[in-house]
Amino acid sequence: xxxxxxxxxxxxxxxxxxxxxxxxxxxxxxxxxxxxxxxxxxxxxxxxxxxxxxxxx
Length: 57
Known about the structure:
Blueprint: E1 8-14, E2 19-25, E3 28-37, H1 41-51
Antiparallel strand pairs: 1-2, 2-3
């Protein structure tokens, strides 16, 4: 447990609608650097689909 107490971790959760991230130092959450945005994987996929040429068979 001594090693974990000094480590910094970035945890990301790329959800369908919301992208969350949090930073922890050891077992403590660092609130000022943790946040989320209302952009998720579905938004990324929608842009890719819109900008991609149609598939040809």
